[in-house]
Each structure stands twice: as C-alpha cells, then as structure tokens.
Amino acid sequence: MSRLxxxxxxxxxxxxxxxxxxxVAQETQPGPTYSQEDTLRIVQEVRKQLxxxxxxxxxxxxxxxxxxxxxxxxxxxxxPILKSDAENAVKRIKGVEKVENNIEVLxxxxxxxxxxxxxxxxxxxxxxxxxxxxxxxxxxxxIGPGPNIAAMAGGITQxxxxxxxxxxxxxxxxxxxxxxxxxNQTDADIANIQANGTPGVFSVTNELEFPNxxxxxxxx
Length: 220
What we know:
This protein has helices at about 35-50, 80-90, 110-125, 140-145, 150-155, 185-195, and strands at about 5-10, 20-25, 60-65, 70-75, 100, 105, 165-170, 175-180, 205-210. By secondary structure, it is an alpha/beta fold. The strands form 2 sheets. Strands 1, 2, 3, 4, 5 and 6 form a 6-stranded mixed beta sheet that branches. A 3-stranded mixed beta sheet has the order 7-8-9. The radius of gyration is 18 Å and the shape is globular. The relative contact order is 0.14. Mean pLDDT is about 80; it is low at about 1-30 and about 150-155.
C-alpha cells in the first residue's frame, strides 16, 4: 500500500495532544477519502479505542495512520492479544472500511522479560523520572503486595504494571526502544542512560519526545 497522505499519530497513555508525522510515497490511483470533519472524528475515536484497551501497557507502543478510508495500525505488542484487540476495536468504528494491522508482536523471551523488569525499575525508581509513573516507583509497587500468579507463571510481560506510564519500554531480542513523552531533554537523557546501563541490553533507541525538540526530531 502506498503512503501518500498517511498521517501517523502517536498513542501513549498520557498523550492528550497527538503527534503527527506525514509519510510520503507515490500514489497512482487515489482512492476515496474522508471529509475533514469525518477524519477528525475517526482519528479521535481510534485514539480513544486504542488508549482504552485493557491490554495496552508500559511494554507496548501503538501508533496509527489514516490512508483513504483505511486505518493503518503500527507499533509493538508484548502479547499477541493486544494486536487482535486493537484491530477489533478499530473495525467497529463507523466509517472505517479497512484496517491494515502492522503491529509487531514481540518475541516470547525470558531474557527480554527480565530486561523489561530491570529497565522499568532503573527508570521509574529514578527521582527525576518517578513523576512519569502513576505508581511512583518499582514494579513491586506497581503490582502490589501478595503473590502474583500471572507474573510467577509467565514473567512480568504476562502481568505488567498497570496505570499511567509516560515512558514505554519496548524490548526485542535484547534491544530496547524508549517511546513516549517527557518534559525535557534532560529527562530523556536520564532515561537513555538508565536503559543503557541495564545488564543484558544490547542497544537503546531513544524515541522519547518532549516540547521544543530539536529539528532532527528524536532524542539521542
């Protein structure tokens, strides 16, 4: 599918303002498109549906775009159920004629599961970064007291911390992507340093966004 006119919207749990990135390619036969009013309605509804998914958490990152009268879903899901839930939720929206589901399901890996937990703790126990976490601290604080059967059986991926998280942690085969929104460059840099210092992490891609970012776009 071509990408002319595709608008990509970042969907994070805290994002009240959508990030818009145009994607350009050749288009030979432009198809039907929404009116400006319908586009705004559908964008708002897709965003609402994705952010309302109970399986969408700190170890996932979803984005979406509009192409003609189709919705393109992108991003990463730590559990397969999120990919299918996202598609099913968007399909029900009035006016959506097609859903192209490009969400990547991350590997089921004990090593990645351990890295998720360690990066989470390194980030969210930092005094400067605690404000980006509704639980204000470690995974233990996020999960609460008592045994967690799902976590013990399948690792933290199967029972992720709940609540608001501004910084999402994506792990694939030891490689980490930080996605989301912070207040400034300093906080983005601190998150990057903490993730890079986690044992077993091969690389960190820092995609955290913040107000008045440099023209190059992403935090380094």
